[in-house]
Write a structure and sequence with these properties.
The complex is a heterodimer of chains A (477) and B (293). Chain A is mainly α. Helices cover 67% and strands 0% of the residues of chain A. Chain B has a single domain, classed as 3-Layer(aba) Sandwich (Rossmann fold), CATH 3.40.50. The chains are: A mainly alpha (477), B alpha/beta (293). Chain A: One of its GO terms (molecular function) is acyltransferase activity.
Chain lengths: 477, 293
């Protein structure tokens, strides 16, 4: 059941009605309903993996309590590592086993030892990377005594399996979401209205921007050997907007849906393509994952405390791990590595926290500099996206090479029966709308909101891509 | 909560209003469509006189050279549609009858398309803008699973088939952008391709014993006293499962088997589609056999 499906359009109002009109007596009844709804939502993909979700929930719930109750440090450590290893074990088996087995076999083959790897015929449980990270952060926080263990199983289950965030995040923190599920929610009209705006704007991003860009990006990436330089450049730009529209659109819908139930989720995107450097980009892109890696990997590794080399080492580690988190493929690892390389000059100049302020454009030289910085950061991001999108590293390198060697910049008719340049106007308009509303969460709220909402609905109907349906990209992670 | 329910009702009302307005606007544009495709042209046309009307899939569209019929004094148009099934061929003939076309002969390409009586979504969608303007189209689609959504939900059909009848197509109609669908009196000539697929496997294909839409076309012709000529058109040399054509002949003895009228691969662009040269050889045979020309 996808957020942009008819099934979800029926599911959501039913749950909303039951939540506020039938199960609204206590927070326990509210939470119980949301868990049932969440499990139903999850089982629509594959009911068999529901057991994995329940097991993962129970494991972290139980080990969390045992860590807190642990009388000795040794015992606390035992429960802590049990949880970490089992969580990562599941992730390893379902997501990474085949990758490691195949890579190891290739390594042996390259030194003359002929092997054929034993690969598992398993499908990736949807959302496993997200709910595993929920559980991990919870257990780690308890172990380091940052939070108390949750003794109410229903409340804890809801924190892990709350349907808006279950399959593609944002990756929530116990400190943020658990306190909210522990109190009865009262209906708040303004919050619910914000939710509607976010849902509609998320749909615009998904069906108008992402899915339309996808048809062009696919036509270009899948036939890159016959594309000219102009098409290849556009392919990278289209993919940049596809992945942004897709993932931030999903996050907007998730946050909006959650607001309808009175629960605030962590903001995941903050207009990342308006970043002035790559550090700022990572403070604005997939914020819940970036901050997760910062808090649970970068800082425990020593963060920036051990001098420059330690900082560089740790930065490379988190970027490579972050790339690997996205999927079991070398392309993701290289994508992470490239981003770390982009980060390097900022670290060396100690300027990675330079662009923390909110900027305003005026008719002066500083504004020109800002625009150049934004364009340059976007250019770097697009280069990295080529590795993210390509099937293999070789494909990505050949794609890049062809951009520089082909040197033809004419219009080209693509496999999707459209010209390569046709989407530029739509993207330009989208950028303009986002630019003008970058101080807000979404562009629809504020003055004349109903009119803006009407335009957004019209855009979804007229310009949305529906027949060539694309799943949300991050579901595969 | 009351405030929110009123607000939600407003949003829903706006959505419905937009859908109704856009449905009306798109339909209006499609009603003005000219020079785009065969379906729109027939729908927006008035009475026509034809000696020969050709119907079928791409194997009709690429195989019957209309100009050769015209040269023999037969007013002809090739209404074969690439990717189309008999579902669409039948509906197109019904629309012609509704518009009081006077037709003497219908040549129907009936071979591989007899194996199913489903609609070809990409082609069938092109009729949908007119579903509220034609009882014929409405009735033809009535047995479809999603008829109610397509008919009653405003703008739904334009969203569901946005690739065919969505914004791009509407915009092209407004721009009066021409396609080549109506060139050469509907016939689309193919060239020889170096990499054309010259193999085909139709082993698993079986003709339906009573293809609903084939029977419909046959009955319309009988009722309107139109001479009905059903033919199987040629395939290349390398086809597995050629006994399919014998199965067709057994189930439908009235269909003329021209599968072997042209055989050499040099006359084929791909295994199921002849080149212009092949099509001319084939059309000459048809003209000789059925029209003594």
């Amino acid at each position: 059941m996808f957020f942009n499906s008819i099934a979800f359009a029926i599911f959501l109002p039913i749950v909303f009605f039951l939540y506020w009109f039938v199960f609204n007596k206590t927070k326990s009844t509210q939470n119980a309903l949301l868990i049932i709804a969440s499990y139903y939502f999850y089982s629509c993909w594959d009911w068999r993996f529901l057991f994995l979700l329940v097991f993962s929930t129970f494991l972290d719930y139980y080990t969390g309590i045992q860590i807190e109750k642990g009388k000795s440090e040794k015992l606390r450590k035992f429960w802590f590592w049990l949880s970490i290893l089992v969580n990562l074990g599941f992730l390893g088996i379902f997501k990474y086993y085949n990758f490691f087995a195949a890579s190891f076999s290739e390594l042996l083959n390259s030194v003359g030892l002929k092997t054929s790897p034993v690969l598992l015929n398993v499908i990736l449980p949807v959302g496993i990377s997200f709910y595993t990270f929920h559980g991990l952060s919870y257990v780690i926080d308890i172990y380091y005594k940052r939070i108390k263990a949750e003794y109410n199983f229903i409340d804890y289950s809801l924190f892990v399996s709350y349907f808006p965030l279950l399959v593609a995040g944002p990756i929530e923190r116990a400190t943020h979401l658990l306190p909210q599920v522990k109190v009865k929610r009262e209906f708040n009209f303004e919050k619910a209205k914000e939710g509607i705006y976010q849902i509609i704007w998320g749909l615009v991003k998904k069906v108008v921007i992402a899915d339309t860009c996808a048809t062009y990006a696919n036509a270009i990436f899948d036939h890159y050997t016959s594309m000219n330089s102009f098409s290849l450049i556009l392919g990278a730009v289209y993919f940049a907007f596809q992945i942004y529209g897709d993932f931030s659109g999903y996050s907007d819908i998730a946050l909006g849906v959650s607001k309808l139930f009175g629960l605030d989720l962590l903001r995941n995107f903050n207009y990342p393509y308006f970043s002035r450097d790559i550090a700022e980009f990572w403070r604005r892109w997939h914020i819940s994952l970036s901050s997760w890696f910062r808090d649970y990997l970068y800082i425990p590794l020593g963060g920036s405390k051990g001098g420059l080399w330690m900082k560089i080492r740790n930065t490379f580690i988190i970027f490579v791990v972050s790339g690997f988190w996205h999927g079991a493929n070398w392309t993701y690892i290289v994508w992470g590595f490239i981003n770390a390389v982009y980060f390097l000059p900022l670290l060396l100049r100690n300027s990675n926290r330079n662009n923390m302020d909110v900027f305003q454009l005026k008719f002066d030289l500083d504004s020109v500099k800002i625009l150049i910085s934004i364009s340059y950061t976007f250019f770097l991001t697009c280069i990295a996206w080529i590795f993210f999108r390509a099937k293999t590293i070789t494909d990505a390198i050949l794609y890049l090479k062809r951009i520089f060697t082909n040197k033809e910049f004419g219009f080209q008719y693509l496999d999707n029966e459209r010209y390569n340049y046709e989407l530029l106007l739509m993207i330009g308009l989208f950028v303009l709308v986002e630019w003008n509303s970058r101080a807000k969460i979404e562009p629809l709220s504020g003055k004349r909101s109903l009119l803006k909402l009407a335009f957004a609905i019209m855009a979804i109907m007229a310009f949305g891509t529906f027949s060539d349906y694309k799943e949300f990209i991050y579901f595969q992670f | 909560m009351k405030q929110f329910l009123i607000y939600t009702a407003k949003v829903l009302l706006i959505t419905v209003l937009i859908a109704v307005l856009m449905d009306g606007l798109y339909t209006y544009v499609f009603l003005q469509s000219k020079n785009r495709g065969k379906i729109e042209t027939v729908f927006n046309s008035k009475s026509q006189n034809y000696d020969v009307v050709i119907l079928g899939s791409s194997r009709a569209n690429n195989h019957f050279v209309s100009k050769m019929f015209e040269d023999k004094g037969l007013k002809t148009f090739n209404y074969g549609m690439s990717g189309g099934h008999l579902f669409e061929a039948s509906l197109l003939l019904k629309l012609m009858i509704e518009r009081k076309y006077s037709i003497k002969n219908v040549i129907l390409e009936a071979d591989l398309n007899l194996s199913n009586d489903h609609q070809a979504e990409g082609i069938a969608a092109l009729f949908l803008p007119y579903i509220h303007n034609s009882q014929t189209i409405k009735q033809h689609f009535q047995s479809n699973e999603n008829f109610n959504e397509l008919y009653y939900i405003p703008f739904y059909r334009y969203i569901k088939y946005d690739g065919k009848i969505g914004f791009r197509e509407t915009y092209k109609i407004v721009k009066r952008e021409k396609t080549n669908a109506l060139d050469n009196l509907g016939y689309y000539p193919l060239a020889k391709h170096k990499n054309g697929n010259m193999k085909n496997n139709i082993v698993n294909l079986n003709p339906l014993k009573h293809n609903k839409y084939y029977e419909e076309i046959k009955n319309i012709c009988k009722e309107k006293k139109i001479n009905f000529i059903a033919v199987m058109t040629p395939m290349c040399e390398n086809v597995a499962g050629m006994n399919y054509f014998e199965k067709v002949k057994k189930a439908y003895p009235e269909i003329h088997n021209y599968e072997n009228a042209v055989v050499e691969n040099k006359y084929f662009s791909s295994c199921g589609h002849m080149t212009d040269t092949g099509a001319r050889l084939f059309t000459a045979t048809i003209l000789k056999d059925f029209f003594n020309k």
